[in-house]
Amino acid sequence: MADYISSILEFLSHLGYFGIALGLMIEIIPSEIVLGYGGYMISQGHLNFIGAVIAGTIGGTIAQLFLYWAGYYGGRPFLEKYGKYILIKKKHIDVAEHWFEKYGAGVIFSARFIPVVRHAISIPAGIAKMPAGKFTLYTVAAVLPWSILFLYLGKVLGNNWSHIKEVAHPYVLPLIIAAIVLGAIYFLVKRTKKTTD
């Protein structure tokens, strides 16, 4: 693992639960790695599983709220100009915007499990002025199982936590499929409701 990632994780580990939340808020390294390391910290007895889940859920939700408010107040031009500083590229915004326009608010939950789209999907939600309460509810509903999964796997792996991505793959794939199915159901229900109104 790259030295700079190890250094960041070492720094975050000294902050305990706040370190997990902060790592997910700034997201300079993938959430899977932060949570996997958090699971390792649980296995060493430094953290409590429930506390780590709460910290992960709060941090992951706040990270998405940052992007939501950036879209809400700054709009697309702001994010195209400054998105690079938070690792959001124009192509990410394009894909996320397409998904949001096609599938509606329900995609806020389902897209959280899909690579490329998951980090940027909050932006079109903000641009579209989606109600903040609804956005937060869908986000928490997706961030919570994600946090539980990777913290649990990190805990089980213990000293081998750095292999989290390989070990998580068989678990993440069903999550992605389930998320797509739920998103499709939501879309069909909304579409049926519109045609019957």
UniProtKB/TrEMBL annotation:
<protein>
    <submittedName>
        <fullName>DedA family protein</fullName>
    </submittedName>
</protein>
<dbReference type="InterPro" id="IPR032816">
    <property type="entry name" value="VTT_dom"/>
</dbReference>
<comment type="similarity">
    <text>Belongs to the DedA family.</text>
</comment>
<keyword id="KW-0472">Membrane</keyword>
<dbReference type="Pfam" id="PF09335">
    <property type="entry name" value="VTT_dom"/>
</dbReference>
<feature type="transmembrane region" description="Helical">
    <location>
        <begin position="168"/>
        <end position="189"/>
    </location>
</feature>
<feature type="transmembrane region" description="Helical">
    <location>
        <begin position="47"/>
        <end position="70"/>
    </location>
</feature>
<feature type="transmembrane region" description="Helical">
    <location>
        <begin position="15"/>
        <end position="35"/>
    </location>
</feature>
<dbReference type="InterPro" id="IPR051311">
    <property type="entry name" value="DedA_domain"/>
</dbReference>
<feature type="transmembrane region" description="Helical">
    <location>
        <begin position="135"/>
        <end position="153"/>
    </location>
</feature>
<feature type="domain" description="VTT">
    <location>
        <begin position="29"/>
        <end position="155"/>
    </location>
</feature>
<keyword id="KW-0812">Transmembrane</keyword>
<keyword id="KW-1133">Transmembrane helix</keyword>
<dbReference type="GO" id="GO:0005886">
    <property type="term" value="C:plasma membrane"/>
</dbReference>
